[in-house]
Specification:
By secondary structure, the protein is α+β, with helices and mostly antiparallel strands. It has five helices and five strands; from the N terminus they run αααβββααββ.
């Protein structure tokens, strides 16, 4: 019963995306790095060093939305690709209202694309600060629960 409700909500969001003129199942997106490559290249840098290197740390990544948190004008999430996970940070004043509205519609399991720069949070977690956000594929079914996991 609850699953049906969740799937209904996802279908409503799908329709909202279509109404906005967004193809929810097929946009080309060229990524420049995988999550593992980002960790390999940038993990060793401090928060301050990354801030200084912002100009040379521009990346494009794509993956499945695994976690999402934050309300209001900003949010954090983890994106998983075949190599692993990376945290992303999406702020309304960075990506613009239109892209931020699409971000708010994103559900766990959706495939998303992010262009941005590398930075570290106050807790030291390597992250991508989004300059642009794109919905690549809308997931119509919820992710399996953590107990069973994703293969």
């Amino acid at each position: 019963e609850e699953m049906n409700d969740q799937m209904q909500v996802r279908r409503q969001k799908l329709q909202e995306l279509i109404d906005l003129g967004i193809d929810p199942f097929g946009q080309r997106f060229d990524r420049t790095a995988s999550a593992a490559e980002l960790h390999e290249k940038w993990d060793a840098f401090s928060k301050e060093e990354l801030h200084e290197k912002e100009d040379e740390s521009h990346v494009s990544i794509a993956g499945r939305l695994m976690t999402k948190r934050g309300k209001g004008k900003a949010g954090f999430a983890h994106v998983q690709d075949l190599s692993g996970q990376i945290q992303i940070y999406v702020r309304k004043d960075q990506v613009g209202e239109e892209q931020f509205d699409i971000w708010k519609m994103a559900d766990l399991g959706d495939i998303i694309g992010i262009e941005g720069v590398m930075f570290k949070t106050n807790t030291g977690e390597l992250s991508v600060k989004a300059k642009s956000f794109i919905m690549l594929t809308k997931s119509l079914r919820p992710l399996p629960d953590k107990f069973h996991g994703l293969q």
